[in-house]
Amino acid sequence: MRYLVTGGAGFVGSHVVLALLDAGHEVAVLDNFSTGHRGAVPAGVAIHDVDLMDYQATVDVVAAQPWDGVLHFAALSLVGASMADPFHYLRQNYLTGINLVQACALHGVKKLVFSSTAALFGGPERADPIAETALVQPGSPYGESKFMIERVLHWADSLYGLRSACLRYFNAAGADPLGRAGEDHGPETHLIPLTIDAALGRRPALKLFGTDYPTRDGSCIRDYIHVTDLADAHIRALDQIATRSVVYNLGNGHGYSNLEVIRSVARVSGLQVPWEPAARRLGDPAVLVADSTTLRRETGWQPRLGELDQIVETAFRWREKNPRGYGSN
């Protein structure tokens, strides 16, 4: 099969590219490299250096050849930044998403897998773990922008037959077990790489945002899913949307607290992790844990690297070997 991956030079997108290649598919990457890395794209993979805000350039790529499917990862993705600059997030994620969906709907693409988010479930009145039937109540403009694209995909299916899979995943983490790809954001905002860098002495003491949440140790609880398991779910989702669109919540189904992450990094690395408490961040709920029952039942998906120490160990090995991320090579 031939697949186009938008944002394929980013963290999750690059791991999905590897999974598609490992499965024997032909892959091309569309990315404007505003946050992605050319070094994250495997040799031999075609690169389209295109900004999805440019509708005609997007159409030119989508219409240039028949694609068996498109996987869409290109988006702004920081909850805190979206609270500080909401209109930028809403505009950027919505326009880039609708440009891509329109191009696919009008030019023969029949399958699209969308990188959605657990940030759709930001309301206080919900239970954990969170199933697909939970009330969608985004707690940030970032989450709202993702839900807007889910609605665009609903109408693209109803009116044009573009089948989609909206994967609402929780906290992607870890690195390719073979060391081919890892996490390299600038600036880095994710807890596990920040904790690893603090342990390695590459940054000051870790700031732990909120120690007074109503959780077992006062810190936030999140469902961490290994990025390779995440990529496997995308491959399985492509098979599901041959005849219908689907929505799946995607996570391990088990939450780990921020303090438990710190302890895991200390165990895996054998190093002390310097940290200090800080104020809560706007838009951060106390607990986010996925109910992935539907995905497991319909696709047979199971996390293979579901333990926190496994996730941290792959991330630690990659960051230790690549101290400047993709700039190390």
TrEMBL record:
InterPro entries registered for this protein in UniProt: Epimerase_deHydtase, NAD(P)-bd_dom_sf, UDP_G4E
**Cofactor needs:** NAD(+)
What are this entry's molecular-function GO terms?
UDP-glucose 4-epimerase activity
Q: Where is the signal peptide?
A: none
Uppermost EC category = isomerase
- Provide an example Pfam family for this protein: Epimerase
Query: EC number(s) in its UniProt entry?
Result: 5.1.3.2
Q: Does the keyword Chaperone apply?
A: no
What metabolic or biological pathway is this protein involved in?
Answer: Carbohydrate metabolism; galactose metabolism
**Which keywords belong to this entry?**
Carbohydrate metabolism, Isomerase, NAD
Please report the stretch or stretches of sequence annotated as the NAD-dependent epimerase/dehydratase domain: 4-251
Q: Which domain of life is it from?
A: Bacteria
Enumerate the catalysed reactions: UDP-alpha-D-glucose = UDP-alpha-D-galactose
Tell me if Mitochondrion is a UniProt keyword of this record. no
What SUPFAM superfamilies does this protein's entry cite? NAD(P)-binding Rossmann-fold domains
The family line of this record is: Belongs to the NAD(P)-dependent epimerase/dehydratase family.
Whom does it interact with, and what assembly results? Answer: Homodimer.
Protein name according to UniProt: UDP-glucose 4-epimerase
- What's the encoding gene here? galE
